[in-house]
């Protein structure tokens, strides 16, 4: 049981519910089908049906939609502890693709596994629903960012959000975090060109707020970055009531 107790998903769900031994055992079973995927090769394709969901154990994944002209919009990044394709197995068809940013490890979760887990442990089902609702809230926030925030605030908000998400699973802090995404990934996420991303990151660095270099985000003035982005982490619900 020790491995699942230390897993990123367990750390994340434990912020919402005090997990019992029975619930930990169910989580352990959900982690049984462990798989590895190579960076740059889609693990789920847009329009694919009858696929499994995955629990990301190590590495980063981007979820994206392809346009008719071949360009893509990255919808979000998944970090350890996140579900991939949870909505797709319930709707039977994936409306977007998942691509590992780096080599990853994930647990494959079949629809039957998930439904059995929900039937056995309703509290665990509630916690997973909380995680899914949180993911939806982040997508809404990203839409607001692309539509209404200027480029500096958009970048600042996104870097702060990633930091908060990683802090929940013990992989980030107000000092910074490791981040394997490229400036091209950021461009496809934030609706900017790669040249504009480079310019924005330089401006934030020269303002003494944050540096993103060599796969690491370093916060120099966390409070100043929060003010610039008008970042309110309430939508992430990381300090909500713990269910006993």
UniProtKB/TrEMBL annotation:
GO terms for cellular component: cytosol. This is Crp/Fnr family transcriptional regulator. It comes from the Bacteria. Keywords: DNA-binding, Transcription, Transcription regulation. Residues 149-223 form the HTH crp-type domain. GO terms for molecular function: DNA binding; DNA-binding transcription factor activity. It comes from Fuscibacter oryzae. Pfam families: cNMP_binding, HTH_Crp_2.
């Amino acid at each position: 049981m020790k491995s699942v107790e230390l897993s990123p998903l367990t750390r994340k769900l434990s912020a919402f519910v005090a997990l019992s031994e029975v619930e930990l055992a169910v989580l352990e079973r959900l982690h049984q089908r462990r798989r590895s995927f190579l960076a740059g090769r889609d693990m789920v394709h847009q329009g694919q049906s009858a696929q499994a969901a995955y629990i990301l154990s190590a590495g980063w994944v981007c979820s994206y939609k392809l346009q008719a002209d071949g360009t893509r919009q990255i919808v979000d990044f998944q970090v350890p502890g996140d579900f991939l394709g949870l909505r797709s197995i319930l709707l039977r068809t994936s409306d977007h693709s998942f691509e590992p940013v780096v080599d990853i490890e994930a647990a494959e979760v079949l629809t039957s596994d998930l439904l059995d887990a929900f039937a056995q442990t309703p509290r665990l089902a509630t916690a997973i629903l909380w995680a899914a609702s949180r993911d939806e809230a982040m997508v809404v926030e990203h839409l607001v960012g692309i539509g209404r925030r200027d480029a500096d605030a958009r970048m600042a908000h996104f870097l702060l959000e990633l930091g908060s998400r990683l802090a929940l699973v013990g992989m980030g802090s107000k000092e910074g975090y490791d981040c394997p995404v490229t400036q091209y990934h950021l461009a496809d996420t934030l609706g900017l060109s790669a040249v504009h991303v480079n310019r924005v990151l330089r401006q934030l660095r020269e303002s003494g707020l944050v540096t993103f270099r060599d796969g690491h985000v370093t916060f120099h003035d966390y409070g100043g970055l929060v003010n610039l982005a008008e970042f309110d982490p309430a939508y992430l619900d990381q300090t909500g009531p713990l269910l006993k």
